[in-house]
Request: fold
Amino acid sequence: MEFRYLGNSGFKISEITFGNWLTHGSQVENDVATQCVRAALDAGISTFDTADVYANTAAETVLGKALKDERRESLEIFTKVFGPTGPKGHNDLGLSRKHIMEAINGSLTRLQTDYVDLYQAHRYDYETPLEETMQAFADIVRQGKALYIGVSEWTAAQIRDGHALAKELGFQLISNQPQYSMLWRVIEAEVVPTSEELGLSQIVWSPIAQGVLSGKYHPGKPAPEGSRATDAKGGSKMIERWMSDEVLTGVQKLKPIADEAGLTMAQLSIAWVLQNPNVASAIMGASRPEQIEKNVAAAGVKLDAGIMAKIDDVIGPLAERDPAQTKSPASREA
Reply:
């Protein structure tokens, strides 16, 4: 495993982050989830990402139990705040001071830790003054409940505004967590240049495009049983945008490129996002321990210019690049 600095800070994280978004507390049993965490640790992953909204707080609980006997100083634990949790009452969501302060305490209890290394605004909240949100984050940092603050799926303009307020309040935003893959490149035009200017890194989710870039799905054929595309609990909805014959046909053309690089298609996809110098880490989920053992091999891989050009030739025309696709719910009730 290799490690990279997160933003303009002295804080290092593993190139591969283990995330438990669509799995722990929902799609896989808790004992399998724990096995996946063990496999991640064995593979050298030290960075773990979750959120209070995942499985309505259950994912944090599962991760906390899985990590409770590990040396805390050797781990980087991330979580997020914004989405509705608990009974989903009128103050159980958003980035108000009330919700943030209550949410961090709940997350720390479930994660069985005194602090998180990175606390992230899961989306931008249009209904709460940004000053209120950033003051709450500043207080959480001063209380020692979070060491660093990041955001997720914020636009370039939102990142710029948040960064300026954080600086006034005596802390810094050091990261953004966007979706990014060969097929989803919406951060490249605006978010990445702004982040480079201001000293933020990207921690990217869905580098394999919900599994589509692994090559397991074939045009004109039913999805494999047990795959995300067949999951009625939410996985199938997340992946449906990629399930057209045009995209699946293009993805199959990656196979000889991956073979040339000596990688699986999933490894190639993870390695591809890590070639972007503004990307500090790629988040990898898993429903089986062996998935981690295979995909972690993408860490440290350097793809030459020829391989990158071939990838662009076959996938580039299919990629979504519109910066306007980086967006948060317009209303906290959305």
